[in-house]
Amino acid sequence: MERLKLVLQYFQSNSESISNGICIILALVSVKLYTSFDFNCPCLPQYNKLYSLGVMIVPPIILFFLGILVNRHTGVMMDEWMRPIGNRSKNPAVVKYLFSAMIQRALLAPMVWILVTLLDGKIFICAFSVSVDPALFSGMPNNTGLDVLKIMAKVPCKEDVIFRNSSFRKAVSRYVRCHSQAIGWSILLFLIVLGALGRLIKPCFDDHATFLQTRYWSNYLDVEQKLFDETCVLHARDFARKCVVQFFEDVREDSLRLPHPVFISKFREEWDDEEEEQLHGITKQEQVDQLLHKWYYNKPELDVSRIAYRPRPCVTWENHEGKTLYSDV
Fold first, then answer.
1. pLDDT tens by residue, 183-223
2. DSSP state letter for 12
3. For a Cys-Cys bond, which of 41, 113, 197, 260 suits 156, CB 3.0-4.6 Å?
4. 328: which strand partners?
5. pLDDT exceeds 60 at position 88
6. DSSP letter at 258?
7. What secondary structure letter does DSSP report for 90?
8. Which H/E stretch holds residue 48?
9. Half-sphere exposure of 136 (CA within 13 A, CB side)
10. pLDDT at site 208
């Protein structure tokens, strides 16, 4: 349980970890889909390859676009790429970094599907059993009245009567499955070696300081968007609350006979005691629309010197001799 809690805390720590968790879930879903998929080869020369390529290609394409759809980097990248320049210049390196991260995560589930199908071998047998030379194996049925091509196309169908009490089908299936698994393991080895070489060679050619800057600002864009959304939610909540209170007060003033709602009286005292004003002076619909318009077309420049070095009040207590007893900044 402790390990499970640590894993969950990692995946909830930031958006990048959440994206990694979603990609891993998609990869596991692809494996589950394949194992529960009812694979039925048509066992016809003209349809075997078409059916097999469809099973091999179509689900990975769906999983790829699904990975792009659920990846948070997609929205952040598109917002940064399409936004007007305004007061903040665009950094192509950040967009490139986000695009690379999005593609890498989106490719995980499709690659898992392709590797699982190759290591399992059923689809490969269906697609390429007709390409095997039957002379390499003994025991091919000769009294069926079918030509060699149709017999080889029926190899994936183990229930077919022409292969009853015959080892020919099993021998051809093992032969094709060996090639399929060899291709699958080769692709997996190539991807692992490519990733290892990329990790080892990339620092030799790229400026690590530039990479750190790119990664920092890509994370900044994600955090900034999340904080803006959270602030908008708080503002909308307070705006709606005050709008409802104002409506009830207006109705009460108009009728003069309606008692003040109890829940309004109760919560009004609490709202009046709040030190922080969530509306930030934005009290009209036109002001809200203007604010959102300005946020999109004129993002603030990346300079917080004015608020970072804003003077803070200092409270100091001194005794009758002028000595400082307590100081709070």
1. 999 999 999 999 899 888 887 877 888 888 998 999 999 89
2. T
3. 41
4. 315
5. yes
6. S
7. -
8. helix 48-70
9. 12
10. 82
Closest CA to 134 of 183, 166, 169: 169
Please give the pLDDT value at position 147. 82
Q: How is residue 131 annotated by DSSP?
A: G
Q: Which helix (H) or strand (E) holds 316?
A: strand 315-318
Among candidate residues 155, 122, 115, the one with its CA nearest the CA of residue 137: 155
The three-state (H, E, C) secondary structure of 64-86, written as one string = HHHHHHHCHHHHHHHHHHHCCCC
Q: DSSP letters along 135-177, please?
A: GGSS----SSS--HHHHHHTTT-TT-GGGTT-SHHHHHHHHHH
Task: Print burial letters for 169-196: b (CB count within 10 Å at least 16), e (below 16).
Answer: bebbbebbbeebeebbeeeeeeeeeeee
What's the confidence (pLDDT) of residue 205?
78
Helix pair angle (108-120, 15-36), 10° resolution: 30
| AA letter at 71 | N
CA 128 to chain centre: 35
Chain segment 124-178, per-residue pLDDT in tens: 999 999 888 888 888 787 766 678 888 888 888 877 778 777 788 889 999 999 9
Instruction: Look up residue 144 and give its amino acid.
Output: T
Give, in degrees to the nearest 5, the angle at Cα 148 between 144 and 149. 120
Residues 6+ apart with CB under 8 A from 124: 52, 117, 118, 176, 177, 179, 180, 183
